[in-house]
């Protein structure tokens, strides 16, 4: 009888130990899953931080370059239209010199927000450097690209920055390209697309600033050497 009793006690203890082990295993697995989720969230934040300009909270040039390459190759393969805009804040140096760099930062942030709010979810705007921004519009018709450029120009022109009792207004110059492989064979790589948009942007400055270039869909913008003074 004592032997049977001892065996039953040992079996009971073994069952309890097994159930406890299962509970501990489930708890460990749950903790591992939670840690994996937190790790993925941390990695996502790191990736996002690497792609975002810290001042303006829009994409940086690094991300834009990657996005451009993928969409340029796609436009070439499927002969779709790819829009690209280079945008520069007019007389931005005067803003910094007159009102200080903190005000200049506010202007950059306000302009970036205005540009971002005017675009579709499939388009991107990035800070290209200093007071320059670049926009990419995949699979967009030429007229829509021109209309988008006009909308961006007007949106920034409508901004008002309040500096105590003073009000500050700024404008932008926009150069745009509506690229297709068939119509623009001279553009053979992504950098050519950005350079062409940049040349048009400086033509907008040369012709008075606060405008887009080319001015008309049917017009031909003549390229020429232009001053690089902002």
Major beta sheet summary: 5 strands, mixed
Distance between the termini: 101 Å
The average pLDDT value, as a whole number, equals 85
Low-confidence parts lasting 5 or more residues at pLDDT below 50? 218-230
List keywords for this structure.
single chain; 230 residues; alpha+beta; Alpha-Beta Plaits; 5-stranded mixed β-sheet; two-stranded antiparallel ribbon; 6 helices; 55% helix; elongated
Outline of this structure?
This protein is an alpha+beta fold.
How would you sum up this structure, described in words?
The chain is of the alpha+beta class and 230 residues long. It has 2 domains: 1-51; 61-213, Alpha-Beta Plaits (2-Layer Sandwich). Helices cover 55% and strands 16% of the residues. The protein contains 6 helices and 7 strands. It has helices at 2-51, 61-78, 92-99, 101-117, 142-157, 190-206, and strands at 82-89, 124-129, 132-137, 161-163, 166-168, 172-179, 212-213. The protein has a 5-stranded mixed sheet, sandwiched between helices. Strand 6 (172-179), helix 6 and strand 7 (212-213) form a beta-alpha-beta unit. Helix 3 crosses helix 4 (101-117). The N and C termini lie far apart (101 Å). Mean pLDDT is 85; it is low at 218-230.
């Amino acid at each position: 009888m004592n032997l049977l009793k001892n065996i039953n006690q040992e079996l009971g203890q073994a069952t309890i130990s097994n159930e406890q082990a299962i509970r501990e295993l489930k708890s460990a697995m749950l903790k591992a899953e939670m840690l994996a989720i937190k790790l993925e969230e941390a990695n996502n934040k790191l990736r996002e931080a690497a792609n975002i300009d810290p001042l303006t909270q829009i994409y940086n040039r690094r991300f834009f370059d990657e996005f451009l390459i993928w969409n340029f190759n796609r436009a070439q393969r499927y002969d779709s239209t790819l829009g690209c805009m280079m945008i520069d804040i007019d007389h931005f140096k005067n803003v910094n010199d007159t009102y200080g760099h903190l005000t200049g930062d506010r202007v950059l942030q306000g302009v970036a927000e205005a540009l971002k709010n005017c675009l579709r979810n499939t388009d991107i705007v990035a800070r290209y450097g200093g007071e320059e921004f670049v926009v990419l519009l995949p699979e967009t018709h030429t007229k829509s690209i021109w209309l988008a450029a006009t909308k961006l120009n007007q949106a920034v022109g409508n901004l008002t920055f309040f500096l105590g009792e003073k009000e500050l207004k700024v404008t932008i110059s926009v150069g745009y390209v509506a690229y297709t492989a068939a119509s623009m064979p001279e553009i053979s790589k992504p950098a050519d697309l950005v350079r062409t948009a940049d040349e048009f942007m400086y033509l907008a400055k040369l012709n008075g600033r606060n405008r887009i270039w080319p001015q008309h869909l049917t017009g031909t913008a003549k390229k020429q050497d232009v001053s690089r003074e902002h």
